[in-house]
Amino acid sequence: MGRFQFLEAVLPLGIIAGMLCIAGNIQYTIHKAAHGRPKHIGNDMWDEALAMWCKQ
C-alpha cells in the first residue's frame, strides 16, 4: 500500500499543470488576436528600438 502512495499527488499535479497550460494558451491566443503576430519573448526596449531602426 505504501509503495504507490506517490500516486495520490499525480491527480492534483496534473490538474495544476493542465491549468497552467490552458492559461498560457489563452494569453497567447488573446495576444495574437490583438496584435496579429505571436509575442516575442524576452524583447526589451532596446530590441524594439533596434527592430524599428532596422525597418527604416
UniProtKB/TrEMBL annotation:
Name of one Pfam family that matches: MWFE
Q: Where is the protein localized?
A: Mitochondrion inner membrane
Where exactly are the transmembrane stretches of this chain? 6-30
Q: Does the keyword DNA repair apply?
A: no
Top-level taxon: Eukaryota
Q: Which GO terms describe its cellular component?
A: mitochondrial inner membrane
Q: How does it sit in the membrane?
A: Single-pass membrane protein
Family classification? Belongs to the complex I NDUFA1 subunit family.
Q: Which UniProt keywords apply?
A: Electron transport, Membrane, Mitochondrion, Mitochondrion inner membrane, Respiratory chain, Transmembrane, Transmembrane helix, Transport
Q: What does this protein do?
A: Accessory subunit of the mitochondrial membrane respiratory chain NADH dehydrogenase (Complex I), that is believed not to be involved in catalysis. Complex I functions in the transfer of electrons from NADH to the respiratory chain. The immediate electron acceptor for the enzyme is believed to be ubiquinone.
InterPro entries linked: NADH_Ub_cplx-1_asu_su-1
Annotated protein name in UniProt = NADH dehydrogenase [ubiquinone] 1 alpha subcomplex subunit 1
